[in-house]
Amino acid sequence: MSHILIVHAHPEPQSLTSALKDLSLEILQAQGHEVQVSDLYAMQWKAIADRKDFIETVDPDRLRYIAESRHAYASETQTLDIAAEQRKLLWADAVLFSFPLWWFGMPAILKGWVDRVFAFGFAYGVGEHGGERWGDRYGEGVLAGRRAMLILPIGGRAPHYSDRGVNGSLEEILWPIHHGTLYYPGMEVMPPFPVYQSDRLDEAGWQQIAVDLKRRLDRLFSDAPIAFRRQNGGHYDTDQRLKPGLGQGEGGTRIHLLQPGDPEERLVQGV
Q1: I need a surface site. Which of 15, 61, 95, 253 has the fewest CB within 10 A?
Q2: What is the mean pLDDT of residues 84-100?
Q3: Are 126 and 142 in contact (CB under 8 A)?
Q4: pLDDT tens column, 104-122
Q5: Which residues contact 238 (CB under 8 A, 6 or more apart)?
Q6: What is the pTM of this model?
Q7: Domain of life of the organism in this record (predicted)?
Q8: Per residue in 27-71, pLDDT tens?
């Protein structure tokens, strides 16, 4: 069976978010998968990216985080907590992110996990540049071949997150996470599993959520991921702008989704 990592971010073990994490663990283990859990609050994860992330520094006088991240990853001098989480990601066939939607994004501790673990040379700064190719990203990269899915309690009502909802569509709200954080280093991103009005869920609602979550996890490796265009699939020009004729009839970030009739994607060879 598969290896699955759950990255969990909620401070209360008795919360709905934690219950969903526990249920996911139970379902996946019953299916025969091997599962690891990174419970960030329980781990007392260091969320702040700073000089303490580097055992040795290139420049002791001024912190250039990207340069230090590149050096630490290449020289294997990252701190133990960062390296351990990277090993979990490389071990995993799929990664589930369990967190509540707070202020239209991740809790700070999870954002700090991304900031520190997604190091230069690991999640970005990978691959050759030349012509239409700008490195291995957006569909390629170190984390290619893995699937990712958000398990996402939300306090508001579903209509508030619809295409005409006052909060904006959930698809647009999650674009920075789905496309910018998970697809960027190569992961295939599954549609999210939102739980709306999470602070008003009754027992009957929980039972239905449990059925729905099991159905989604049963199909974690068979359902189609979100159809983002690959950066190096031939659809973008040398300025990384979508080529004329593509994205017709769509607006906003949806132009970056594959559409019926689009030319077949190809790999642009590095130069």
Answers
A1: 61
A2: 97
A3: yes
A4: 999 999 999 999 999 999 9
A5: 131, 132
A6: 0.91
A7: Bacteria
A8: 999 999 999 999 999 999 999 999 999 888 888 889 899 888 999
Please state, in angstroms and rounded to a whole number, the distance separating the CA atoms of residues 118 and 102.
21
Distance CA 97, CA 117 (A): 14
How high does pLDDT run on average in the chain? 92
Longest Cα pair distance anywhere in the chain, in angstroms?
59
The whole-angstrom separation of Cα 65 and Cα 70 is: 9
> Buried (b) or exposed (e) across 257-267, using 16+ Cβ within 10 A?
ebeeebeeeee
pLDDT for the residue numbered 268: 53
3-state secondary structure the chain: CCEEEEEECCCCCCCHHHHHHHHHHHHHHHCCCEEEEEECCCCCCCCCCCHHHECCCCCCCCCCHHHHHHHHHHHCCECHHHHHHHHHHHHCCEEEEECCCECCECCHHHHHHHHHHCCECCCECCCCEECCEECCCCCCCCCCCCEEEEEEECCCCHHHHCCCCCCCCHHHHCHHHHHHHHHCCCCEECCCEEECCHHHCCHHHHHHHHHHHHHHHHCCCCCCCCCECCCCCCCECCCCCECCCCCCCCCHHHHHECCCCCCCCCCCCCC
Are 8 and 109 in contact, with CB atoms under 8 Å apart?
Answer: no
User: Is the model more confident about 160 or about 261?
Assistant: 160
